[in-house]
Specification:
Layout: H1 2-21, H2 28-47, H3 57-72
Helix pairs in contact: 1-2, 1-3, 2-3
Length: 73
Amino acid sequence: MIQIIELYTLVVFVAIVVSWMRLPPSNPIAQIAHTLTEPVLAPIRRLVPPVAGLDFSPMVLLIGLQLLKGLFS
């Protein structure tokens, strides 16, 4: 289970980097990252709105993943 959490953490980091690079939505890497992370990030975004234009939902997700990983360690 820890390996799955670590793999998903990597996917979230890829999604963050892709958002910084502003790849077009048609890019395969952007599509995969969006498909894998958006179902989890969307509910977090509803709870944690952007602050000064910055989206903190990936950071909240990463913290949650680390807490979850700690439960399985």
